[in-house]
Design brief:
heterodimer; A: alpha+beta; 4 helices; 27% strand; globular; B: mainly alpha
Chain lengths: 153, 68
């Protein structure tokens, strides 16, 4: 059996995604002692209804094994330039990280975003899980550095 | 083309023998290695694999079919 790559509604995705969210958070989140995983699923659902969310999934049979979620916005600095995608999260379960599954996920995501009329996409990666080489080889331009700082607690 | 392509694929995978039915996920390549492998094959054979074909590449035979 092979993995398949498709777009799905948030509602369908969420049915299977919650256990992956926990794995995702465990592997990649920062400042876990202060910031706990607590997905605002209702808000995601509302964004999906407004056409402001794009979910790309990887399934092995019916099992969800990966995803990439993007926010679709008309950028406030460039309102006449068209829809832009801001990657919210992406993840592939470790057992499926061989054989190009992640590459196929990003390519499927890119194709689907183009089909939805997205003119530019932004994606980032954690410093401790660096994907820069992959993105550059897939034609993405390294354009920003992001910093974070805990201010509360 | 197939025998040359299979030879290039075998070399790019760093293997002594690769069979058409071998699955790419059996070679243990991570995403970057898989991407570099595809780039090496394209460079060595002077061909371009369209992005939309990549999600169908599960076995060596799939790649041979795309390279034909």
């Amino acid at each position: 059996m092979n993995c398949t790559y498709q777009s799905e509604s948030w509602e369908k995705f969420l049915t299977d995604a919650e256990q992956l969210f926990a794995l995702h958070w465990e592997e990649l989140a920062l400042d876990k002692e202060f910031i706990k995983q607590d997905m605002d699923c209702e808000r995601y659902q509302n964004l999906d209804k407004l056409g402001m969310l794009h979910v790309t999934t990887v399934r092995f049979g019916s099992a969800l094994v990966g995803y990439a979620v993007n926010f679709l916005i008309t950028h406030m600095h460039y309102k006449s330039s068209g829809v832009m995608a801001l990657a919210d999260m992406y993840f592939v379960v470790p057992e499926f990280r061989k054989g190009g599954c992640g590459i196929k996920l990003f390519l499927a995501m890119e194709k689907q975003l183009r089909e939805r009329g997205v003119v530019r996409a932004h994606i980032s990666c954690k410093v401790h899980f660096d994907q820069q080489e992959i993105f550059e080889k897939l034609g993405w331009t390294f354009s920003d550095k992001t910093f974070s700082k805990m201010l509360g607690k | 083309m197939d025998s040359k392509a299979l030879s290039v694929i075998t070399s790019a995978l760093g293997r002594a023998v690769v069979l058409p039915n071998d699955r790419f996920d059996s070679f243990g390549l991570d995403s970057l290695e898989f991407l570099e492998f595809l780039l090496e094959v394209q460079r060595d054979l002077n061909v371009a694999i369209p992005d939309e074909k990549i999600d169908s590449l599960n076995t060596v035979q799939d790649l041979l079919d795309v390279l034909r």
